[in-house]
């Protein structure tokens, strides 16, 4: 065959091969998009269902009567409601998932009769059966005045329960597999492409090494996309890339158990006359508190540290002793009102000496225009009384304050300690500059005396840290 005709034939083959590759690429992209959409739709619908049922549960707890004569009935209603909600969520997940071991965690069902459980076992749709029980339970509670809410408001709970079940029914379509003709055709085309690509590459690329590398990369890429689509197409299973069904059921049960605690649905106590101020509230629920009540901080043994997260417990007692550092804490369930005189346990959620927190805090506690209240907050946070006399700075309280600061610093990494020390040094220098410049804001003798005490306290803390 003449060389010109051979080149023309090769060009024709490459043109046809390019069209074939385009069809294969279109099928791969179509299959991947369908699998990706099915995966994220499953995630969205599942979280929507959990949210609807959690909201309905919290609404029903809020609607419970507060009459003392009905508290026993209210407790029985809440206990049965929590068990049925757990069973509802479990039944819905078992209906959706394809697990080798479909045993999921539920709250204790020991109070339900054997006949009831046998009836549930034989139900063609367990989730619908449990939902019917919950609706009947709500109607009975409303008739018995266990629920104290107008009918239009109570109907919201029914709407959220029904919307959650509709969402579960919508998720059942995920069990229908991707159309078999598309899947079969794509698999055949991939096999054909893998077999013929080396032949075409040998004619288009002169060097065998480069031809082999290009064939390997292209074919592996197509097959990878194909198997990724196969993997995420059915997210309700036991595979490593499927949804964490058991963990989600466990988290739902944890919510039910937490919300049924009286502190969860009772209005928080509020004292307008309390002199406790919250300066910052982060998404991780860490608080920067300054409290005029007398506090003593006693750090305990730290738990294992993961990165910068520290689980350290501290006791917070209200007594007649001077104030010591207590900041960036969150109350546990044992917390009580500051005026009760009882012991209160606090648990830090993140490192209380985090340099990023201090960077945000310093401009707040030292604004451009200083007032006596601002300096008092700083002194309280540093564990210094704000009495007129200087007092004995080497006394037991000062040593306890410095020891507490050293204990708190010792739980941090070296980098965190260095960052915290640098922040304290910057604060100390700023206070010293203010005192040396005799700013007009410090003309008040009481304010100036407190600033000197703040400088002295910062110096002591820094010296103690240097010793450590």
From TrEMBL:
UniProt feature, compositional bias: Polar residues: 332-343
Membrane spanning residue stretches: 12-30, 182-203, 209-229
Keyword Lipid metabolism: no
Compartments it resides in: Membrane
UniProt KW Oxidoreductase keyword: no
Record keywords, A-Z: Ion transport, Membrane, Transmembrane, Transmembrane helix, Transport
Protein topology in the membrane: Multi-pass membrane protein
InterPro entries in UniProt: YneE/VCCN1/2-like
GO-annotated cellular components: membrane
Region (Disordered): 322-346
Pfam family, one: Bestrophin_2
Record-level Gene Ontology MF annotations: chloride channel activity
Subcellular location, principal: membrane
Domain of life: Eukaryota
PANTHER family associated with the record: PTHR33281:SF20, UPF0187 PROTEIN YNEE
Protein's recorded name: Uncharacterized protein
Naturally occurring in which organism (per UniProt): Symbiodinium natans
Lineage: Eukaryota, Sar, Alveolata, Dinophyceae, Suessiales
């Amino acid at each position: 065959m003449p060389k010109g005709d051979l080149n023309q034939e090769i060009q024709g083959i490459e043109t046809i091969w390019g069209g074939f590759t385009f069809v294969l690429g279109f099928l791969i992209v179509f299959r991947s998009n369908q699998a990706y959409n099915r995966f994220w739709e499953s995630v969205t619908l599942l979280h929507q269902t959990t949210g609807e049922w959690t909201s309905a549960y919290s609404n029903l707890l809020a609607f419970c009567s507060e009459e003392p004569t009905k508290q026993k009935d209210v407790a029985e209603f809440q206990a049965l409601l929590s068990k049925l909600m757990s069973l509802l969520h479990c039944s819905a997940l078992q209906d959706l998932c394809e697990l080798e071991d479909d045993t999921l965690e539920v709250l204790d069902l020991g109070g339900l009769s054997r006949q009831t459980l046998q009836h549930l076992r034989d139900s063609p749709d367990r989730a619908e059966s449990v939902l019917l029980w919950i609706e009947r339970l709500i109607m009975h509670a409303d008739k018995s005045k266990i629920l104290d809410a107008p009918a239009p408001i109570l109907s919201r709970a029914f709407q959220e329960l029904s919307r959650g079940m509709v969402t579960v029914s919508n998720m059942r379509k995920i069990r229908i597999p991707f159309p078999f003709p598309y899947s079969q055709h794509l698999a055949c085309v991939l096999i054909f492409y893998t077999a013929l690509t080396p032949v075409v590459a040998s004619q288009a690329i002169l060097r065998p090494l480069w031809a082999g590398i290009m064939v390997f990369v292209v074919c592996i890429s197509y097959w990878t996309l194909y198997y990724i689509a196969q993997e995420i197409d059915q997210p309700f299973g036991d595979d490593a890339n499927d949804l964490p069904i058991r963990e989600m059921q466990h988290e739902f049960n944890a919510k039910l158990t937490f919300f049924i605690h009286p502190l969860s649905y009772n209005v928080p106590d509020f004292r307008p006359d309390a002199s406790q101020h919250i300066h910052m509230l982060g998404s991780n629920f860490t608080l920067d508190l300054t409290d005029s009540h007398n506090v003593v901080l006693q750090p305990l043994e730290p738990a294992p540290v993961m990165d910068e997260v520290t689980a350290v417990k501290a006791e917070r007692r209200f007594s007649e002793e001077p104030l010591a550092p207590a900041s960036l804490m969150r109350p546990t369930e044992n917390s009580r009102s500051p005026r009760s005189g009882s012991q209160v346990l606090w648990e830090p959620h993140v490192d209380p000496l985090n340099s990023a927190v201090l960077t945000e805090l310093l401009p707040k506690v030292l604004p451009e225009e200083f007032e006596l209240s601002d300096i008092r907050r700083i002194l309280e946070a540093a564990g210094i009384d704000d009495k007129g006399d200087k007092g004995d700075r080497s006394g037991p309280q000062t040593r306890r304050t410095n020891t507490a600061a050293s204990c708190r610093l010792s739980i941090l990494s070296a980098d965190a300690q260095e960052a915290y020390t640098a922040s304290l040094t910057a604060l100390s220098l700023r206070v010293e500059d203010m005192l040396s410049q005799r700013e007009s804001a410090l003309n008040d003798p009481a304010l100036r005396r407190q600033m000197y005490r703040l400088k002295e306290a910062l110096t002591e803390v820094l010296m103690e840290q240097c010793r450590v």
